[in-house]
UniProtKB/TrEMBL annotation:
PROSITE patterns: ATP_GRASP, CPSASE_2, PROKAR_LIPOPROTEIN. GO terms for biological process: glutamine metabolic process; L-arginine biosynthetic process; pyrimidine nucleotide biosynthetic process. One of its GO terms (cellular component) is cytoplasm. SUPFAM superfamilies: Carbamoyl phosphate synthetase, large subunit connection domain, Glutathione synthetase ATP-binding domain-like, PreATP-grasp domain. Coiled coil: none annotated. One of its GO terms (molecular function) is carbamoyl-phosphate synthase (ammonia) activity. Residues 133-334, 678-872 form the ATP-grasp domain. Its EC number is 6.3.5.5. Belongs to the CarB family. This is Carbamoyl-phosphate synthase large chain.
Length: 1054
């Protein structure tokens, strides 16, 4: 079937900000879709609010709108652009929900737009759990016994009906329809829990429907990624098996591909059932994820659910097999058949109808950030809580499993595995983030496999492999590098045991272990991922390391540059750094270098097989990176773009004679070590907050007298403000030092600059100077982590004198630190009336920062590209963004709804998962649009929480009057209430019951309470500046105009 000629322009809906359950895998999928459609001559109109994505770069789509992902804004854009069709399968649940809204409001019919891949009707069939159950039942497939619930009374009746059916006393699963990442779902152990969960699930479901179904906890869970074309041809790209049983969300489970414990008859039955479901649901073309559960005792198979779109699992399947699912799905939406699409991986010797063959094993492990949410129990359930994931490839399950553990960079897992046997048993009996590491440790202590099986419901096949690893580790602990034979080395490495693990067991330096291993010629081979198990020659150099036999994938010729990625997404280190890595790889390639990407994140664009000349899917540890360097013999390595992970390896890499391109290791140490950095600022004569270095609890009294309170503690070498804290007395400081121990040795305790304005400056430095810099001004004050603060560019209150002073300081520091490439400086500006106007430097990061993508979009200046030129030795021309008269605002997005027991407060430690960006003709317009994009509809808000702690109440009262005119209910702390009452502003005093909100430390420690019904939809204003921003936002007209990113350079409003 030839490509359709009637589809000349297509609107692609993105996924919006990174949230738990919807991460950067949709940037990967969306980027592939944009490029695939552009190749066919289609005009692509992209709508996405996330500035940190590759897909929102001006050159990816024909027209790019970085605007709120709501139906009202989308309708305005679609009426302006008039595309022929709309593609909603690349933007996760957000895009599907937007498609449903556009259909309900008649926009699709009004504009006569065709829905590619899925229609609102087919989305209903798959996302509405009752309809999906009907389709599966009509096909003769097994489903879990369930009841549809639309009210709490329905839930009570469902519980009684299930009790009559013989399920009394059993657990029940609550599953809302049309939610993301299992939001609102849960496991109910009694009727009271069921009613509470159903009430929550009904509130979270967009259609107000929940399915109460029998519990399948302990069953084995599988996922099939199916691709279908218009003619009904289907193929199974990958079968993914969850090592964890049913009852844990698939995004939080350890998974393996291909399935290891599924026999062929079961697989064929599952594959046929998946094809039947996809065809019966009305899905026209593209990728569908279908989930099944199998009872390990009886073999009963049930269909669990389907997702009619690309997903987290489809990104994993694409990277695991080399089959570009999103690209193929985009081409199929234009009318192609599978047999008409050649495989780019095999130089088109095969077509897309060929199901991938895997002669290796892939393991995915989730990455959690429970440490960011104190008070939240680290317990896994049916709703997703992980913030990222890693993927490892090996020739065997054991090799791949141990590589995946290394990829996580999770010290919490190591600490949990060092627990006593009794505590290990407790940790294993509950589904926790560190369960697999604890199981490995328990097997090493002699815990029986049968006991582990009873406690975890993990298949004995996997437990047997973990037992083998534990046995070899135990045996090697009595050896040493000088007594190891080559066969013993090979046995250890084929089990995936790292040099770091052996150095810890033997109590020696890791370099000695590596030297002893290499002296016996034990080094990994390289094998290629090719989709066809080596049957055809492949175009891409997509390789993994293995100690199991010889492998191909030799080093390519030419000047090679190794780029280190950022590893798994986590709070503070996410998609922003992948954005920088992708641009760095493209720039180095344009300069004639062969690029070698090292990363282990399957969700990212950087790990696409054609994003670099060679992709090494490896852990970001010193051992694995050194092996890549020995294999490729590069010109040098680039560390600046991957965040804190590669930066922490700088000194080790330099000591092992790896040339670092750009900023030297000594500079990195001078900026990261607080004591050294304080000395640098002192020598440069740059103002900094009054501070002192603390080495332990004994220094607390001395530091207290020299610094004063309140103070802020900033440890060295930390990511996203880890362990940073505001302290208000000597006792609190001493308790802090005792609690954190060695982790905060050498931390700086500095004066807390209450009321200061915080700014970020992103600079590009070359050997001659600083050709580019850009300033963003924060809305929240100093004391709130920069990643959690809304910010604006250009600055909306700073004068030219302050900006000139900041630039002068940046130039001086870049020369003193010998920075080449990117540098981020955080400033605090104190205005007159505080301590006299002054510019203080808080910290310097000699690397890419998380604001680089936002600044690059707002200024239309590609900072990562300029920085790469500088690191490769080129001199950059001085570039300054032309004034456009437009403001761009970045707002943070949080996941507190996923962690109901964590206190929803902001402070020095970052807690946001993603960000949005919007542009307007004034700061107020841009800010109002950013709030809508982040999910806060200030125009329709009915409840707001206000606090004027630590400053004048006049601006707060001005905002309060405006909000009262908009009929908003205002809740205030006691101090604000008294001030408002005296001025005749009607507000509510925070009650003693209800939902407590702890406000940002920048304005004091005010607390207030509100009725729980208001809590999920409340606007919190805890700062004067935040209230002023809200005031400007409320004054904006309801019909704010969307702007194309391509038009920002000339400020042309279309």
């Amino acid at each position: 079937m030839p490509r359709r000629s009637d589809v000349r322009s297509v609107a692609i809906l993105g996924a919006g900000p990174i949230t738990i359950g919807q991460a950067c895998e949709f940037d990967y999928s969306g980027t592939q879709a944009c490029r695939a459609l552009s190749e066919e001559g289609v005009r692509v109109v992209l709508i996405n609010s996330n500035p940190a994505t590759i897909m929102t770069d001006p050159g990816t789509a024909s027209a790019t709108y970085v605007e709120p992902m709501d139906a009202r804004t989308m309708a305005r854009i679609l009426r302006r652009e008039r595309p022929d069709a709309i593609l909603a399968t690349m933007g996760g649940q957000t895009a599907l929900n937007c498609l449903q809204e556009l259909g309900r409001h008649g926009v699709l019919e009004e504009l006569d737009m065709e829905c590619l891949g899925v229609s609102p009707a087919s989305v209903e069939n798959s996302e509405d759990r009752l309809r999906f159950k009907g389709i599966a039942t009509s096909l003769g497939l097994g489903v879990a016994s369930s009841h549809a619930v639309r009210t709490v009374e329905d839930a009570a009746r469902a519980a009684r009906a299930m009790a009559r059916a013989g399920m009394a006393g059993r657990t029940m699963i609550v599953r809302p329809s049309f939610t993301l990442g299992g939001a609102g779902s849960g496991v109910a152990h009694c009727e009271r829990e069921l009613l509470v969960m159903c009430a929550r699930g009904l509130a979270m479901s967009p259609i107000g429907e929940v399915l109460v179904e029998e519990s399948l906890m302990g069953w084995k869970e599988y996922e099939l990624e199916v691709v279908k074309d218009h003619a009904g041809n289907c193929l199974a790209v990958c079968c993914i098996e969850n090592v964890d049983p049913m009852g844990i969300h698939t995004g939080d489970s350890v998974t393996v591909a291909p399935a290891q414990t599924l026999c062929d008859p079961e697989y064929q039955r599952m594959r046929s059932a998946a094809f039947d479901i996809v065809r019966a649901s009305g899905f026209t073309s593209g990728c569908v994820n279908v989930q099944f559960a199998i009872c390990p005792q009886t073999g009963r198979m049930v269909a669990v659910e389907m997702n009619p779109r690309v997903s987290r699992s489809s990104a994993l399947a694409s990277k695991a097999t080399g089959y570009p699912i999103a690209r193929v799905a985009a081409k199929l939406s234009l009318g192609y058949l599978l047999e008409e699409l050649g495989s780019g991986m095999t130089r088109r010797r095969t077509t897309s109808t060929m199901e991938p063959a895997m002669d290796y094993v892939v393991v995915k492990m989730p990455r959690f950030s429970f440490e960011k949410f104190p008070g939240e129990e680290p317990m896994l359930s049916t709703h997703m809580q992980s913030v990222g994931e890693v993927m490892a490839i090996g020739s065997t399950f054991t090799e791949s499993f141990m590589k995946a553990l290394r990829c996580l960079e999770d010290t919490g897992a190591s600490m949990a595995a060092c627990s006593a046997r009794e505590r290990l048993a407790l940790l294993i009996s509950f589904p926790s983030p560190h369960r697999m590491a604890c199981m490995l440790a328990a097997l090493g202590m002699g815990m029986p496999s049968a006991a582990l099986r009873r406690m975890t419901c993990v298949d004995l096949w996997y437990i047997a492999r973990l037992k083998r690893i534990a046995r070899i580790l135990g045996a090697l602990s009595y050896k040493g590098p000088s007594t190891m034979s080559r066969l013993e080395w090979l046995a250890a490495k084929r089990c995936g045991i790292s040099d770091a693990a052996l150095s810890a067991a033997w109590g020696i330096d890791e370099m000695r272990v590596a030297y002893a291993r290499r002296s016996l010629r034990v080094s990994p081979a390289r094998r290629r991922i090719d989709t066809c198990a080596g049957e055809h020659d492949v175009a891409a150099s997509y390789v993994y390391s293995t100690y199991c036999g010889a492998g191909g994938g030799g080093a390519s010729r030419g000047d090679r540059v190794v780029l280190l990625g950022s590893g798994p997404n986590r709070i503070g280190q996410g998609i922003e750094f992948d954005y920088c890595c992708v641009h760095a790889a493209a720039t180095a390639a344009m300069e004639g270098h062969r690029t070698v990407m090292v990363n282990c994140n399957p969700e990212t664009v950087s790990t696409d097989f054609d994003a670099s000349h060679a992709l090494h899917f490896e852990p970001l540890t010193m051992e694995d990176i050194e092996e890549v360097v020995l294999h490729t013999r590069p010109l040098g390595a680039v560390l600046q773009f991957g965040g804190q992970t590669p930066l922490s390896l700088a000194e080790d890499m330099a000591s092992r004679c790896v040339r670092l391109l750009g900023t030297p290791a000594e500079t990195i140490a001078s900026a990261e070590d607080r004591s050294k950095f304080k000395a640098v600022l002192d020598a440069a004569g740059v103002a900094q907050p009054r501070g002192s270095i603390m080495w332990g609890p004994d220094d607390a009294a001395t530091v207290s007298s020299s610094v004063g309170f309140p103070a802020i503690v900033r440890p060295s070498y930390v990511l996203s403000g880890r362990c940073m804290q505001v302290v208000r007395g000597a006792g609190e400081l001493c308790a802090y030092a005792m609690h954190h121990g060695k982790r905060v040795r050498g931390a700086i305790v500095e004066q807390y600059l209450g009321g200061a304005i915080e700014c970020d400056m992103d600079c590009v430095c070359d050997v001659d100077g600083m050709p580019a810099c850009h300033v963003v001004e924060h809305v929240e004050p100093v004391g709130v982590h920069s990643g959690d603060s809304a910010c604006s560019t250009p600055p909306y209150t700073l004068g030219s004198g302050v900006l000139y002073q900041m630039r002068s300081i940046a130039v001086a520091l870049s020369r003193r630190l010998a920075v080449v490439g990117l540098m981020n400086i955080q400033f605090a500006i104190l205005s007159p009336g505080d301590y006299g106007e002054a510019v203080y430097v808080i910290e310097v990061n000699p690397r890419a920062s998380r604001t680089v993508p936002f600044v690059s979009k707002a200024s239309i200046i590609n900072l990562p590209r300029m920085a790469t030129y500088a690191m490769l030795g080129r001199r950059c021309h001085s570039v300054r963004g032309e004034p456009t008269g437009l403001y761009s605002v970045k707002e943070a997005v949080f996941a507190f709804s996923k962690f109901p027991y964590a206190t929803p407060s902001l402070g020095p430690e970052m807690r946001s998962t993603g960000e949005v960006m919007c542009t307007g003709r004034s700061f107020g317009e841009a800010w109002a649009k950013s709030q809508a994009a982040a999910g806060y509809d200030i125009a329709g808000a009915s409840t707001a929480a206000l606090s004027a702690c630590g400053g004048s109440t006049s601006a707060m009262l001005q905002a309060a009057r405006l909000m009262r005119q908009a009929r908003a209910e205002l809740y205030c702390t006691e101090r604000t209430y008294r001030a408002a009452y005296s001025k005749g502003v009607m507000v509510h005093r925070g009650g003693a019951s209800g939902h407590r909100l702890v406000l940002a430390p920048g304005d004091g420690r005010g607390e207030l309470s509100m009725p729980p019904a208001h809590a999920p939809h409340v606007l919190v204003c805890s700062t004067i500046r935040g209230c002023l921003a809200l005031t400007e936002g409320l004054a904006q007209p309801a019909n704010m105009h969307p702007l194309r990113l391509q038009d920002l350079r000339n400020a042309r409003i279309v």
